[in-house]
Amino acid sequence: MSRTHVCETAWAANLKGFEITGVAVRNRDILQVLARKSLPHDRATHMLDADIPTRILSVFLDDTSDRNLECQELENMAFPKLGVSRAPFERPGGIVVSMGRDGDAWPLGGGNGPLEKIAVGARPATGRLRCLFGFTYSIGIARTMYKRVAVSRWERVEGLPAPRSEDELQAAGFNDLDAFSESDVYAVGGHGDVWHFDGREWRPMGFPAKEQLATVTCGGDGNVYITSEGGSLWAGRQSTWRLLEQRSSSILWNDTRWFDGRLWLVSDYQLRVWNGHEIVTPEHEGKPILASGHMDAHEGLLVVADLWSISVFDGHDWRKIVAPC
Predict the structure, then answer these.
(1) What global pTM score does this model have?
(2) CA–CA separation, 162 and 156 (whole Å)
(3) Contacts of 34 (CB under 8 A, 6+ apart)
(4) Rg (CA), the chain
(5) What gap in Å lies between CA 298 and CA 128, rounded to an integer?
(6) DSSP state of 14
(7) Comparing C-alpha atoms, which of 126, 171, 118, 129 is closest to residue 144?
(8) Do 231 and 267 form a contact (C-beta atoms < 8 A)?
(9) Quick check: 32 and 57 in contact, CB under 8 A?
(10) Is the model more confident about 92 or about 32?
(11) Could you report the per-residue pLDDT of 63-99, keeping only the tens digit for each?
(12) Is the predicted pLDDT of residue 1 greater than 60, yes or no?
C-alpha cells in the first residue's frame, strides 16, 4: 500500500474548520469521509441541523499526488449518515442520507446524484447505513429498514412489525445490522430488541437484558457480538446470549467491526479490541494505538476517524493519512 497522506494545502482547503462525523471504506483504494462545520455551541443551538454546512470527501489511497482529496458540498442534510453502495452498480460509491421526511439520499462516485428519496413522506429516520453483500441498508427507529436495490429505488424490508404502543415504540429497534449470509441476518436496537432473518422470515430473539443496544457484529469466529448500555459486550447466537464484560461508560460504542481475527470497538473517546478475555487497548510494535470516533473495515483495511484525523490499519502497519496541519 502506498504511503498516501493528505497534503497541507488539501487539508486546509477541505477540512479546516470542519469536524469528521463519519468514515467508510468504499474499496481498498478509496475512503469516504463525512464532515460538518465546527460551530460554537451557542450558534449551533440556534440553527436547524440541516443548515449546518456538510461535506462528503473522497480520500484516494492509491494517489501520491497533492490531488488525493476531493470534496463536495451538500445542502439540507439533517443529522446525516454516511455509508457506501456497491451492488448492483458497476462501481462502488459513497452515499449520504438525511434524517428528514423523505430520507433524502445523495450518492457519490460513478457520477454524482441525482438526489434520491428513500420513502416519500414516510420518515425512514435513518440512524445508520450498512452495506451487506453489496447492498446498502437504511436502518432506523421503530424497526424501520430499507434496501437500496437500484438507482433511486429503495425497498422497504418487510416482515418487521411496527410497534403497537408508545411503550413498545420506546423499546423497539433498530440501531445496527450485520450478517453471516443473506439467510443469517441480525438486527438490534431499542431496549433488548434483537431480530433474526433466516432467509424466509424475521423472528424476535430473546435477549437477557432490557438495555439499550448499540451495535451488532457477526464475527469470523462464529459469534454474534452485541454492545449495550455502559459499553457492555455480549456474545451468542439467536436467543442464547452471555455477558462477556460489564462496563460503566457514560456513552455507547459508535461502531464495532471484525478485523484481523478480532472484534474492534470504537467510541467518541477510545478504540479497543476484545482479545477473547477482556476489552483492551490495541497495541502495535509494543505501543498503544490511541484513536477514537468512527470506524469501518472492508477489503483488508480498517479505518478509524476522530474529529480531525484518520488512521488506517492493513493488518501489518498503522499510518495516519489525515491530520491537522
Answers:
(1) 0.94
(2) 12
(3) 20, 21, 22, 23, 54, 55, 56, 57, 80, 81, 82, 96
(4) 19
(5) 17
(6) H
(7) 126
(8) yes
(9) yes
(10) 32
(11) 777 778 889 999 999 999 999 998 777 788 999 999 9
(12) no
